[in-house]
Here is the input.
Amino acid sequence: MDLLEVFKNSDDLVEFPADTVIFTEGKEGSYMYVVMNGEVSISLNDTVIATASPGEIVGEMALINSDIRSATVTANTDCVLALIDQSSFESLLRHVPDFSLHVMNVLADRLKVAYELIEH
Amino acid sequence: MDLLEVFKNSDDLVEFPADTVIFTEGKEGSYMYVVMNGEVSISLNDTVIATASPGEIVGEMALINSDIRSATVTANTDCVLALIDQSSFESLLRHVPDFSLHVMNVLADRLKVAYELIEH
Here is the structure.
């Protein structure tokens, strides 16, 4: 699913300079983000466990099962992110058939990486 | 979402005696399962990271992003599981609106547990 195409005309595009902490583990959060430009890193306890590039999402967990961030996301470069709030998220799940499968895939991929980190 | 209600009349209910290894990490798999009765454990490298009780699902990752099992699931007690194959899974995603949100919640919960294991 090409999220860059879906969100290119979003009204909620926000620029973050390199090194900005976009959100912090343990804090409340109410948005997920699509990386439109640049790169962000996802970290636990100051250890980077993944990066996200254009077309990839971050922050989705706070909209699914809790409003507490489970990781910290930082801008690695200057970047532009599209913001998705709870009601837009629910509307996408309902009206864009591929979107929920896409989010499921992202979660399953992250879980695989996490399980590998636990094992090694 | 009450999966016990959804699957109680399933044609694919299978009984597993206690201690059966239902599937093994690293092997190919083509079903996910709803625990209808009893309890199963989910483990990585022989370490139990979670259990699943009636109404809970296991094995969903093999249907989402790969056919390789990312964990091992073992029957803790005699148990009855409902089998869901790839085409039933896709049909549930398409036709049962709450099912995809339910699966997303399960994945997000597992990811939270995994992140806590990585950090501690």
In short: The two ends of chain A are 31 Å apart (CA to CA).
